[in-house]
Amino acid sequence: MPVTKFSTPEKYSYLNGFDSFHESESIKGALPIGANSPQKPPYGLYAEKLSGTAFTAPRHENRQTWLYRILPSASHSTYKRFTDPSSPILKAKLNYEPQQLRWDPFDIDEKVDWVRGLKLVSGAGDPTVKSGLGIYVFAAGRDMDTNTAMYSSDGEMLIVVQHGVLDIQTELGRLLVRPNEIAIIPRGVRYRITLPEGPVRGYILELYQGQFQLPELGPIGSNCLANPRDFQIPVADFDEDTKIYPYKYDLGRFSVIGSISFDHPDPSIFTVLTGPSDHPGTAIADFVIFPPRWLVQEDTFRPPWYHRNTMSEFMGLICGQYDAKTGGGFQPAGASLHNIMSAHGPDADSYERASNAELKPVKVGEGSMAFMFESSLMWGLRTGGWRLPLYGMSRTVSSDPSALPQAVQERGSLRTLEKGKSQFIGSSSGIYFVNTVRRAFINANTRLSSRLLDITHPTPEECIVADGEDEQQRTNESSADASSSSFCYGPGIPAGLGRPPQPEVAKHLFMTYFQTWHRFFPFLHGPTILKTMEDLYSSFDQHGAASELITPRVPMTLSKVIILQCIFNLAGLHGSSQLPAASEIQKPTDVLSYLPGLAVKGDLVSIQALFAAGLLLVARMSLRAAAVVSGLLSRAVFLAGLHRCPCRYAKLTADDCDIRKRLFWCIYVFDRYLSQALGHPLGIQDSDIDVCPLDGPELHHPQLYPTVPSSHNDINSPFSGLSANSPSSQSRDIPISSRQSETGSGRATSEDNSSQKHHRHSSLSFQVQYSRLLGRTLELFHKSLHIRSIDSGSILSLQTDINALWNALPSSLQEFDPSSHDTDGNQGQVFNESAHFILLHSQLLLLIHRPRLSLEPSTPEFQSAIQICISEAREIIKIISKQHNAGHALFWPGYLSVTWMAGIVLAFACQLRLYSAEKGKREIAMCLEALLYMSERWKLAKNCHAVLSDLADAFQEMEHTAMRPPFDILDSTSNSVHPPSIQDHVVGDPGSPTVNSQSGPRKRARLHSELRTRSNQNNDGSGQPSNQFPTNIVNAPADGPLNYSFLDSFNATGPAIEDYPYSIDDPGRPSNWESGMPDLLAGITWESLLGGINQNDPTWDNAFF
Fold it and tell me: Do both 104 and 139 map to the same domain?
């Protein structure tokens, strides 16, 4: 039985042995007796000799096979020339590099077969004189044609499968080769390859000189390493008498030899096969593996050491993680090359971990298999036909002389988990920068490495995406059990989506949603969703028994239910909104399983339901699940044509165009946020869009628009799914005036209405413009390394556009002063627009300059970037702290990552002594305080707090154990980007608890207790502690009851909402929650709405209002 547990079962039989004589026959009696080439072989077969060595080679070296064939191989058809991407190595085509090189995993091309999927990477020598070797990768997705065979006259091929399964039909029999197996095809043997389980990829070492042999064992004795009996030779599909044959070997059968004392044996003890040279002990090629094994040495550095070797080393990874390269850069299907005498060894994290590890018996490499092609020859790189390698830790592929002097190459992180799972976090998330900072702290003081590498502390990856987030069930901490809903959505609606809350609770949640989330993501049409709420609660039959659930008389569609439940759950995230446990969507999987069916429907209501679910997942920081929904949304957008401007199509009314544009741009902003947060490619490319902006100009001939009035009850209206013809809506005519702006006279809207719509959706319009720039930033700095090209001109153009947008913003969105707003008990619901856009601007500047912080600190590029990043980090912390102290709702998840990143930047600058330690400690303490506050909403914030606390503690310890030189860098208060003094950047008196209580070391174990106490220690700016975070904040006047009709809080005799006098660029415009309301009741006067919605009307008994 093989040692490796293969997922694909073996289907062929084999002979066993190595370098031994074998004979087999597919038909009994087919082999001749006593002669190799009789006059008439049995069954009329043709005798044919295949020679692997010269006729006169010494007998112990002679390799030959006699085949008995139905047709001789000379009867093949005429050869046809084709352009071979793996053309033979010629000296003029190779480039010799002393650099340490690394390749990311190579892609699979599913359109090519084996022959066309071979790519030469490196090699030495010349196959025309049978000298040297070649290294290839293969990636294919198609079977070779039935009548096509291949052979190599260059040399003997050693094939390493990394992905997929090869079914190799040779003229000597069949081999099934799976990952963790190798196959050797001798020179001249013909074969055909099919792919029984789809696309494949892997590595090939072709030996031009001689054949592969088993290495000598020497003092080891006669056993271990690769045993001859474990090599498997195919059984003939015809007849053969052979000593030259293909064979395969299961790497899991390799018997590892290692040290049981102190110090290391050389890695040559892991050699499986060798191609010896004429010089004893020196190989043309060795095939070496690093399988799972026990390490038991004492008082030694256990991973491979740093060295310079007279042998060239090409390494690949079949699966798992190589124990000497744990930093994430060396990935399965990737590769590295260290040429002769090129210095190399384990990465920094592996070194620090091994240097401080407890030396006890430990098994390494579990679930992993790394290998090495080693040679005494110097290898050159193929200069064409294959991707460029990655030079060291960073390299630019741009040939532009104006490119950056040093490469800016942030990379992502791939983690392999149990049960075949893997998690990728891309570089735009900041993961590379955070690891760079951690390495800087470790290198500065190795005694701190045990703390920073403590496996009980969260990793940087766990600060971006927490493990198990998609499986976590939310716990309802509300004690309001009496609020548990007795309503349900009726049959056919999955119970996992929850029940509708009681009407009074629903009113409050509904208003909270429109006061907050709708202001920035107006993907819903206010009057339509309001009508849906009315239909839901007015149709409930409440005359059942007390123990029975109350069901609506009119069935609700799944799309409507998802939208309503997501609205309730989004509003329920706010501290004042007590969402009953029965109404909660407990786990992401409770809603994810119902979404794929909606994605293919193509109606707007289904797409709105998809977006509502995605927004809820983001708000809960379930980013992986949200990314799945984002993928569904991007496909749904294209299927429904939302990526094309609706004004191009005559059948769409003005209302249709408006809601389609709003929905599309909300999805666009959503896509850009997730792409940056997770480091994923953009789901929607700008080149695929021609939707005109919400704020104009409209480029698609407005004079051609029809003037046919629309109706919400028209079956062709995109709103029909959310405004179904319920009995209540058919039985009465609600008198509503001035509805033209949203539901009235088609496209012929007035100039005033257009202006009002522009003001109403300015927040979304500005977010779209920032999202465009965010997408450009990701495309410039975080595309695939193989095509990434970063030049100073592109960076300058991007910076110019960012500054132009910032300068174009209204003054009211550039200045944040919480003291100018009311701070009553409702303040916890306030979401300040100016603070939001200031943070977006600072985040973009961080994203542009942060990649240069991975360069050498001595470079001018680094020095310039670090000062800009310090300024933006201080601005971020200042704005977040002001909102924190003012009690504003920090409910957008992007605030968590940008706050954490700002703290990391300042910690890095302080560690490098490029920023004042005193100011840095104070501002990092403010950052930690904000993270504590956010951890009440997101568990992920606890991980961010712990990682930043570790860096702060390490910096504090470094301060105590080493004398700092005088701070000689210009004070950042004189920075031209942010000229205000430090008092403008630090909230509160330096002696206030906000600052002092956080200035010392902070341990992760204190986090939960601090969560309960810190919220009472904030400062209101007067120097006295105050309670800035009310535990019961409602969306109504402080003296108002919760159970009134939600319209009673408005002045029924006031002006129409549509006549709201303020615009977004009006300095006098209020910034409280009311600015989110116009779309909810667009064009409806309070008189008409209250007249139509009358609680005293008997037809409204038991209804929503």
Answer: yes
Mean pLDDT, rounded, for 411-417? 81
Whole-number Å distance between alpha carbons of 367 and 418: 9
* Tens-digit pLDDT profile for residues 589-609: 778 888 888 888 889 999 999
**Known binding positions:** 307, 313, 322, 344
Q: pLDDT: is 320 or 498 the higher one?
A: 320
What value, to the nearest 5°, has the Cα angle with vertex 861 and ends 856 and 863?
75
Alpha-carbon 29 to chain mean position: 62
Higher pLDDT, 446 or 624: 624
Lowest-confidence pick of 287-296, 775-784, 968-977: 968-977
Nearest in space to 193 (alpha carbons), one of 251, 113, 110: 113
CA angle 636, 638, 644 (to 5 degrees): 130
Q: Is residue 1073 situated within a structural domain? A: no
Write the CB contacts of 489 (distance below 8 Å, at least 6 apart in sequence): 497, 499, 500, 551, 552, 556, 561
Kindly state whether residue 580 falls inside one of the protein's structural domains: yes
The answer to the question of residue 159 being in a domain is yes
| pTM exceeding 0.70 | no
- The pLDDT of residue 1039 is above 50: no
Judge if 510 and 614 occupy the same domain: yes
- What is the number of residues in the chain? 1105
Q: Give residue 160's domain range.
A: 96-233+246-253
Determine which one of 264, 700, 786, 821 is catalytic.
Answer: 264
Residue 32 CA to its chain's centroid (Å) = 63
State how many domains the chain has. Answer: 4
Residue 1045 lies in a domain: no
Rounded Cα–Cα distance for residues 548 and 544 (Å): 6
Token reading at 798: 């991007």
Q: Which long-range contacts (CB under 8 A, 24 or more apart) does 1034-1039 make?
A: 1034/508, 1034/576, 1034/825, 1034/826, 1035/508, 1035/511, 1035/512, 1035/515, 1035/576, 1035/577, 1035/826, 1035/829, 1035/1073, 1036/508, 1036/826, 1037/826, 1038/824, 1038/825, 1038/826
Task: Point out the annotated binding site for Fe cation.
Answer: 307, 313, 344
Statement: residue 105 has pLDDT above 80? yes
Q: Which one of 75, 105, 127 terminates a domain?
A: 75
Residue 392: pLDDT above 70? no
**Residues in binding site for homogentisate:** 322, 344
Q: What is the mean pLDDT of residues 8-23?
A: 89
Do 854 and 755 belong to one domain? no
Whether residue 848 sits in one domain with residue 727: no
Considering the domain architecture, whether residues 756 and 891 belong to the same structural domain is answered as no
**Crossing angle of helices 604-619 and 558-572, rounded to 10°:** 30
- Is the per-residue pLDDT at 200 higher than 90? yes
CATH of the domain at 220: 2.60.120.10
Instruction: State the pairing for strand pair 247-250/231-234.
Output: antiparallel
Per residue in 37-87, pLDDT tens? 888 888 888 888 888 788 778 877 788 888 888 888 887 777 777 665 555
Query: What is the C-alpha radius of gyration for the chain, rounded to an integer number of angstroms?
Result: 35
CA distance 506 to 497: 15
Instruction: Establish whether 264 is a catalytic residue.
Output: yes
Would you state the pLDDT for residue 447?
A: 55
Residue 307 forms beta bridges with which residues?
Answer: 344
Short-list 572, 552, 556, 563, CA closest to 591: 563
Round the average pLDDT of the chain to a whole number and report it: 74
Top mean pLDDT of 706-720, 923-937, 944-958 is at 923-937
Both 37 and 111 in one domain: the answer is: no
Give the span between the Cα atoms of 463 and 622, in whole angstroms: 12
Q: What is the mean pLDDT of residues 351-356?
A: 78
Does one domain contain both 50 and 133? no
Please answer whether residues 743 and 709 qualify as being in contact, where contact means their C-beta atoms are separated by less than 8 angstroms.
no
50 and 122: one domain?
Answer: no
CB 302 within 8 A of CB 350: no
Q: Are 345 and 296 in contact (CB under 8 A)?
A: no
Distance CA 438, CA 286 (A): 37
